[in-house]
Each structure stands twice: as C-alpha cells, then as structure tokens.
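We modelled the chain as a single entity of 466 amino acids. Its sequence is:
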Amino acid sequence: MKKYDVAIIGSGPGGYVAAIRCAQLGMKTALIEKYNTLGGTCLNVGCIPSKSLLDSSHHYESAQKHFSEHGIEFEGALKINFKQMIDRKAAVVEQTTKGIDFLMGKNKIDVLHGVGSFEDATHIKIEGADAQTIEAKNSIIATGSKPATLPFIKLDKERVITSTEALELKEIPKHLIVIGGGVIGLELGQVYRRLGAEVTVIEYADRITPVMDAGLSRELMKVMKKQGVKFNLSHRVNNVERKGTTIHVTATDKKGAEVSFEGDYCLVSVGRRPYTDGLNTQAAGIQINERGQVVVNDHLQTTASNIYAIGDVVQGAMLAHKAEEEGVVVAEYLAGQKPHIDYNLIPNVIYTWPEVAAVGKTEEQLKEEGRAYKTGQFPMRALGRARASMDIDGFVKILADADTDEVLGVHMIGARAADLIAEAVTAMEFRASAEDIARMSHSHPTYAEAVKEAALAATENRAIHT
C-alpha cells in the first residue's frame, strides 16, 4: 500500500494548486481524479472553454458590426464556421489540461485516475484505471460542484441543457431560453446572441447578477439589451417541457400572471451545487451540512482533524481563484505556516463584454451595515482610450469610508475590467485610501485611468475629465 503525506481528491484549480504547493513544501503528494483529464470543471467545461467561445464570438461580432468603422472591409459575406469555433475551444482546453499534466510531473506528484472514496480517515479507496487503496496522513477534498437545476425540470442534455452541453452544441440555437440571470447564463447567452440566436433570460430576482452591486446590474442589463438580449425579471419558472425540437417554458410574472416562452434550446443556469457524491464522507467522520457543503473551520479543517476541504465544496463564492487560494492556505497550514485569506478581497468577475468586476463591499451592504461612506464614479466614455477602441460602455465606482477615506469596495463595468480589478485588490490589501489611488500616476491613454478618476471623484469630487 502506497503511503502519502497528503492525498487530494479532485484536480480542479483548488486541487491541483494544493498539490503543487504541498509538493513544493516537501510533502509526498497524490492527486486523485476520476476523469481522464486534469483541471476539473474550470479547465474542461467551465472557465477556459467558455472564455474561448466568448473571445471567438466577440471577434465575429466586431467584424460584423465595427470593422467598417475602422476602415476594414470585406468582399463577400461574413460567415460563421461554428464547428471550427468549437474545435478551437477544444484545442485550447486540451493545451491547458496538458499543461497541468506537465506541472504534476515537474513537481513529482503521483496522479491516480479513478473515483476516490474514504474507507476511514486515513485510507482512500480508488476505483478506476488506477484501482488501489492508499494511506494518507492528511487529505484534501477538492471535488468542486455540478450544475444545479430545479426539481421539476428534466435535463435531457440535448435541448434542455446545462452549461456543460451549451459548450458542445452542434448548431447555433434559433432561440435560446436562459433560466437564470447570473454569471453563467449571461456569458453563454451573450455568446449565442452574438452568433445570431434570439436570447431570452428569465430571472427570479428583480435584477440580474443579484449578488453584485445594483449599479453594475443595471448597467450590464442596459448594455445587453442594446445587444438584443431580452430580459424577464421577477419571473418564477413553473414548468419546462420539450415537444420535439421545441421547448415550452411557463412562468409567473411579478403581477401573478402566467406567461409562456418557446425556443429550440433551454439553458438551465440556476447556480451550482457542491459535489460530494461517492466520497463516503461518513466513513471518515466528515460532516455535511443541509446545503450539501462540507463543514469546515477557519483553517478549512473538516470534522475529521486530518482532512480538509476547499473550493466549491465548502461555503463561500464558487470561484476558481478562491479555490486556488484555499488550496495554498491548507498546504501551508499543514507545513506549520500561518497563512490567511481575506474573503472580502476575493474579486468577482463576469466575462461578458463589457466585462464586470468587483471586490469588497457593495453599496447595498454598506447601507445595510449602517456604515457612512462616500462614492466616486467615472464613466468609461470619458476616456480617450475607450473612444479610440469604441468601448465606451460602463464605469468605475469606488466606495470609501466617509471618515478615514479607506477604500471599502470597487465596482467596475467596461473593457478589461477583469484585469483592472487587480489594481483595486492590491490597493485594498494594503488598506489604501481613495486619495492614495488618486495620487498614483496612471499611464495615458489607458482604461486604468478610470480607476484614478473614480478615486479623485471620491476625494472631494476632484475628477479631472468629467
């Protein structure tokens, strides 16, 4: 029987990063993965493939709608080779997962393919290609999440689909009905809208992206409406039925009236659920809560003292980079170090175009807490760089403490917001004030100038260019 200092179940961003950090710290490490490829949901059927399709569809939309303004003209009709688009996505995924294989070899991590389940707190049985039982002094559960659904919806994975199937379609839908106005639904909805599909979003809450700052929700919906996406807010879906190639969806609107929708595909994107199936957690003494999450303490330690859990399978935002940070924290804690995560400073991003990104407190949270704050906001359209690239939608908003001027939250929507948010995270990690950011030199012309201008606006309304 092979013995390890640490065994990690699940090779997503949390699992493989934890494995690398454990190996770097001198631990003999095993990584257990039931699928043939490493990388989990994020690399195989989530972050990476969805961004590939978002980029490909963005290029098509730009060529179709904006190239002529740049003086770029075509002879003949612009066409979509959808198969090539899907094939390119698959190639990006393959290249990325092979990169994880390389990192495992480089760090001398044993990769064991099969389903891992606990026999007790120190023994893991693996069923599959590398069938065996191993002994692990410590273990890390990093099994991630699966798409959630509603109890009355039958997912046939052909016409009534999850995000996984939406990344592998053989045709562009004529009318894609999206149930859920969160990150996944909006990103994939935008992909297919750009490619010519009619897209209808049905959302139970009174706004899209309900966990983000309301200002971002309003702006993103306004922009996506201009792009042709239809929104139905405060709608409770009651039934989804397939008849041949037609999907019928019935819902109740905010006035109590029943409304119906018809399309040829229905994407169910109502969130994700923690995935612990087959782990046999009870054999190891691991507690699972009523939401299906593994119960952990502040050190991500489960009710079995030598077993830890990270990522989507524990409480908190289901984000790849959150899982990565937790993987590093557990590895360093096992090595006797004293790592720390500030969960308030884990950024959240939506990769639509314009991109949406945020870190820290929302305005709604500050109001609920009764905390005195001030706001500085700057529109992207006031930037020379934005006008040059024709990416003028959006804004940057900075929330700062009314007395100390410490930055409490940064919320942005615009070109490259997913990258710009790192500046805000850095500033907030070092407890920067709005004036600190305002006094930093930002290169011109860039989108990042909007961050400086928003900080100036929060500092005695000193924005220069608006």
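As a brief sanity check on the tokenised model: The two ends are 69 Å apart (CA to CA). The first strand starts at residue 3 and ends at 9.
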